Amino acid sequence: MSDSNVMEQLAAFNSAVQAIPIPTGGEAAAVLQLQEVKRALDDVRLGLWSRLKGAHSKDARAFEEQFRVRRATELCLRLTSDLRSGLMNPGHQEYDDLWIAAVELGQAIQSARTGAGRSDSE
Q: How many helices (H) and strands (E) does the chain have?
């Protein structure tokens, strides 16, 4: 990919982000959509960073997977520490979703490790 092509794509990407309307007043749905865009951009940023680092690795895909798992582990450990030390309010509603996601992740890890989530062709 040429440098000019990358810069053109970045400019188009930036223009697309700038074109997203800023929610005003009681537009809860618009705020939620904007939060989803932000989450997606965070994922893109982290993905780009891991690819950049992985480019110097013999197995870029394995590096990216390792990076994502380490990042998730780091976040979980920090949240655990902050909750235990009282730095975070345990009453946030988001913890309900986090609890569900953590349980589902644990189940998915167990399923993948035991082969229950794999097809015969793998």
A: 4, 0
CA pair distance 77, 75, nearest whole angstrom: 6
For the segment 98-115, what is each residue's pLDDT rounded down to a tens digit?
A: 999 999 999 999 999 998
pLDDT along the chain (122 residues), means of 10: 78 86 76 83 81 77 85 92 92 93 96 74 47
d(CA 45, CA 42): 5
Kindly report the pTM of this predicted structure: 0.56
State whether residue 56 is helix, strand or coil: coil
Residue 108's alpha-carbon distances to 46, 112, 118, in angstroms, are: 22, 6, 11
3-state helix, strand, coil in the chain (%, to 5): 75, 0, 25
In order, the DSSP letters of 69-119 are HHHHHHHHHHHHHHHHTT-S-TT-THHHHHHHHHHHHHHHHHHHHHTTT--
Residue 42 identity: D
